[in-house]
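Async update (no meeting this week)

Hi team, since we skipped the sync, here's where things stand on the single-chain job. The sequence we agreed to prioritize is pasted below, unchanged from the tracker. I ran it this morning and attached the output directly underneath so nobody has to dig for it. Comments welcome in thread, and please keep replies under the output.
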Amino acid sequence: MSYRCRTCGELHDDLPDIAAAKPDHWFTIPEAERAKRSQLSADRCVIDNEDYFIRGVILIPVHDQEQPFGFGVWVSQSRENFYTYLHNPDTDEIGPFFGWLCTRIRNYAEDTLSLKTMAHFRSGNLRPTIELEPTDHPLAVDQRNGITLEKAWEIVHYYQK
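Output:
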């Protein structure tokens, strides 16, 4: 479905997802120490053999659209749950596992870092879906109630600045 964006005036076809390449905690490591103190892949991160993170996606329903809007985010995991996922990366028969959101989603005025989450694992080589605790935080409300297509495009353009 084509959509003329009110933000940029351009005609868009498909709504892209937004993603964070690294957990926010990774940026707290001095640049000169990152290679020694962290192990980072596209889907997993370990810092100081003490902090464990996995990459997943927060799916936000978009009103009157089949496809949800996705935020690629990082969540913390306990050591045990991290290794359970590491050894079973393509199954929906583990979890869900608790974690803290470790990605700041900048277009929300209220900080998203450290929101409570549950990671739901999927088969088919798909990243886990991340469910936020049902609170009154605007991100959790958006995940529960959905957003307009216009708001989704505003978010996309916010990240393209």
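Quick observations from my side:
The mean pLDDT is 92.
The radius of gyration is 16 Å.
Reply here if anything looks off.
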